[in-house]
Amino acid sequence: MHRIKGFVRFEEEKGKVNLFQYTYGVPSYYPQDIAFKNHFVVIGENLDSREVYSQFKDLENKY
Fold this sequence. Notes:
By secondary structure, the chain is α+β, with helices and mostly antiparallel strands. Helices cover 22% and strands 43% of the residues. The chain has a four-stranded antiparallel sheet, with no helix packed on it. 0% of the residues are buried.
């Protein structure tokens, strides 16, 4: 099992920040009043940190 938590912005919602959580296969988004920087924490067993980083960079560059 993996868990992800962090702050994200979506292009469709200019300037708004969301708290993102992913656990047990369910993603959740919660609007925030404070403008946190984009940031993710990935928690799980047997993760290859370089591979996780590479996949997030690929996703970031795609959009």
